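---------- Forwarded message ----------

FYI, see the Acyl-CoA dehydrogenase record below. Original note from H. follows.
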Amino acid sequence: MTAEELALHGVPDSVRVNTIDNAGATLLAAGSEEQRQRFCPGMAAGEIVFSVLYTEPHAGSDLGSMATTAEPAGDGWRLAGTKTWNARTAQAHFGVCAARVRGHGDNAYAATGLFVVPLDHPGVRVEPIATVNPERFFTVRLDDVVLPADALVGAPGQGWSLLSEALGMERTGVCFAGRARRWFDQLVAALHARGQLEEAERVHRLGALDAEIRSCRLLAWRAVQGLAEGRLNGAAAAAAKWWTSELAQRVAWLAFDLLGPAVHSDRHFPDLVLAAREAPGLTLAAGTSEIQLTTLATDLLDGGDPWEEPT
Ligand SMILES: Cc1cc2nc3c(=O)[nH]c(=O)nc-3n(C[C@H](O)[C@H](O)[C@H](O)COP(=O)(O)OP(=O)(O)OC[C@H]3O[C@@H](n4cnc5c(N)ncnc54)[C@H](O)[C@@H]3O)c2cc1C
């Protein structure tokens, strides 16, 4: 509910998503008691911020081909590699970083470990990336970063299942559905203010979109319910993420089409300016639309039912 309210009120959510939904969920699922005590209260209080360090220059959708390595060094670990498209890293204190743990075979799924990396640690370089997105992105270079043993969260090969689980909340689509609603309401208000809500055809089109946004919210909440009950499967999350993010993107494009470039100088509707800049990333972040569709199609072709109720 917090995530939805924040999205409905246009509050930037990447710090919360990365720190609470992602790193926080990972620490709660697999962190030691000491790790939880050290990080979780500060994260909940907004005093400790995490960045998510998964994507690499040559490993995004295909994260299994990640090249960042973690090898034993004395009692601890040495990390080397490059991460990229990491949101808000300059604002963060720590990164939760996926790395291939040496000595655990070639299969990335079985060899991935998640590590807590202090972002001011020797060997860590954080470099900004210029984009049109209102979010700020960074590349993080890890040049032989030596970490203590307790930097590892869970077991060395547990990283893949942990990071997949942590993406679950984002893939419910609650935040995307919230954006779609907020942007749509601002679009209607802008058209109304300009006296551009007269044409029946336009009103019908907006009415149909309004209905889609209402139903996509229900889909997102169905996914949240599945997550809360521990039975949200990958295909259901993929369907929710795909539809909600594609719909929010369509609302942003429609606003741009109907209001034209002038929307950029209309200070009464600041969100619609941000919408046009944010929309391209919605169908990429947390897994692209093509990847969600592949997940869904694979499940359906295997005879699965993403929304099957437990018996
Ligand atoms: C707003 C935003 C926030 C992000 N935040 C973070 C963050 O905090 N931390 C982090 O680590 N990463 C973050 N990312 C990165 C994000 O996870 C990647 O962009 C995403 O996984 C896609 O990877 P890629 O950019 O390398 O694209 P690629 O994987 O190279 O894909 C390029 C295109 O090819 C398509 N494609 C790829 N493989 C297939 C396939 N098998 N079948 C069909 N089509 C395919 C994709 O759908 C896409 O259209 C963020 C991205 C965005 C946009």
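H. also flagged this: The chain has two domains: 2-165, 167-301.
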